Amino acid sequence: MGATLAEKILATHTTDGKATAGEIVEANVDFVMVHEVLGSRIMPILDEMGVDKVWDPKRILVVNDHWAPAPNIQSAEIHQRNRDFVRKHGITHFCDVNCGICHQVMADWGLARPGELIVGCDSHTCSYGAFNAFSTGLAATDTAIILATGSNWFRVPESRRFEISGELPDFVMSKDLILRIVTDLGSDGATYESLEFHGPTIDSMTVPSRMTMCNMSVEAGAKTAIMTLNESATSWLNAKSAMSTWTPMEPDRDAGYVETHRYDLDSDPLGPIVSAPNSPANGKAVEEVEGIEIDQAFIGSCTNGRLEDIEIAARILKGKNVAQGVRLILTPASMETYLSAVRAGFIETLITSGAVVTNPTCGACVGGHLGILGPDEVAISSTNRNFRGRMGHPESLVYLASPATVAASALKGVITDPRSVA
Amino acid sequence: MMKRNLENIVGKVWKFGSNIDTDQIIQGRYLMMLDYSEMAKHTLKIQRPDFASNVQKNDIVVAGKNFGGGSSREEAPKVLEVLGVGCVIAESFARIFFRNSFNVGLPSLIVPDITEQVEDGETLIVNLSKGTVKKDNGTILQAAPLPPLMMDIVSAGGAIPWFKQRLVGQ
Ligand code: SF4
């Protein structure tokens, strides 16, 4: 039997060149991304392990993004520790509080490349499948082991294949598609698996839309999500990556999958999906939740804080005002995104319509700062998780949606179908 | 980190439902606390406010499906370990939590129908090497066998001592 994308990429990183689903293999990693978890958890673990040298300072990105700039003394201290670490170890790639959310920085700086094995101390590290990489999130101890040695053990995942064809209608985004898929799978429907997204819809998608889909695959329990390289990803890499060569991977024709799911968006058109509290897998057609009153609308995060997300919000809100009593908060995913949105005039449009625009950071997504919810407040958010208490008070509620649905809802003050306000 | 007793974990059951995600175990807003014993005071607070103050050494957390879904935060199993929880038995686990729990020296076992089999507050005896869970009334439940690598890590007391052992062995 042939190899899936996950098996193929992992096999190029093991000493014997083999990796079959179900096996536990030792694999060498190409790149590691760490954020505040470095200063808070990984550094003490490295100390305990007696490690005083990282395996390769050129293959590590350190980011201060979750609590940026520091909203309290604890995070300020962690940021200091990260800066010290970067200096001490001569880390090449460092993003301080002024450049954005880790996953977007990986993309902006061209650090996620085809065929690579990338790990990060963050569950949404799976986002780089948009660039044909095998990327997965690990926690502090496993990341520490990799920072020290450049390798770790991995269980080779089984793969689940998606064949997606047809067009996304106007105001329906890749977020709607992935919310639908996560809902169809259930929150543990793909535990430990690799999701392989194929088909004309995926091949013609922009990099930001592809990242949204890979990003949210972890909400169905997946270990990674991988796409084959397309034109949009190739030109992105050509523009951003300092390294000019890479080896894109394709699955073998006779690769073995747990299951193949087909979605034909022409014969079975997709509308906006909203995931009701408290699970991303609780997706509903927008019609089912329309009219629910909201206090806050949030556009941002590593899921949907990119230029096309800000653009569609600006399109919906241009010349109009955010509903009274509603806060619309926009947190661009990175400084690069922010600057492009300023130059394109989207930021002016949104500020004029009543939005609060913050610096790039995780911020409200993690319930950290810049938009925390109070008791009984209701938010609609372009982020990826609506667990109880995720964005603030345990009695607050979060509905997950595309940036288009969030913008339309901000305009009306209630959950709104973006197709109805266009 | 101390070597764990893996043959005879005796503790009371704290029973939870399905889909207890990492934000339920420890909310994002406590993650900036550097001191684990301070952070641990907020463990499972949303679900059971009395958990952190009343849990006893070796008590057993029992849960339904998909325990520990969500973020990769190692703080989730770690606060349970810091509170002295003896092991977690769930019907299924999220991938990162499962891996993390062994890394921090907290054993996790999968018993497919555990929430139907045991009551809140009852005492269980867990034998990790055999993968058995013995109830008060003598009934023995069998857990899915642990991969040898996981057993190695948890017997070493977690991934840090395991890593050190391997360095010495090389
Ligand atoms: S934006 Fe949200 S989901 Fe993404 S890395 Fe930051 S906290 Fe995590």
Structure write-up:
The complex is a heterodimer of chains A (about 425) and B (about 170). Chain A has about 425 residues and is an alpha/beta fold. Helices cover about 30% and strands about 20% of the residues of chain A. Chain A is built from 14 helices and 18 strands. In chain A, the strands form five sheets. In chain A, strands 4-3-2-5-6 form a five-stranded parallel sheet, with helices on both faces. A five-stranded parallel sheet of chain A has the order 16-15-14-17-18, covered by helices on one side. In chain A, helix 2 (about 35-50) links the parallel strand 2 and strand 3. Chain A starts with a helix and ends in a 10-residue tail after the last helix. Chain B has about 170 residues and is α/β, with parallel strands linked by helices. Chain B has one domain (about 10-170): Aconitase, domain 4 (Alpha-Beta Barrel). Chain B has helices at about 20-25, 35-40, 50-55, 75-80, 95-105, 115, 150-155, 160-170; strands at about 10-15, 60-65, 85-90, 110, 125, 130-135, 140. A seven-stranded mixed sheet of chain B has the order 4-3-2-1-5-6-7. The longest helix of chain B has 11 residues, at about 160-170. Chain B is globular and about 45 Å long.
By CATH reckoning, the class of chain B would read Alpha Beta
How many DSSP-defined strands of chain A?
18
Q: Supply the helix-strand structural class of chain A.
A: alpha/beta
- CATH-assigned fold name of the largest domain in chain A: Aconitase, domain 3
Compute the number of strand runs of chain B.
7
CATH architecture designation of chain B = Alpha-Beta Barrel
Radius of gyration of chain A: 21 Å
Question: In the residues of chain B, how many domains can be counted?
Answer: 1
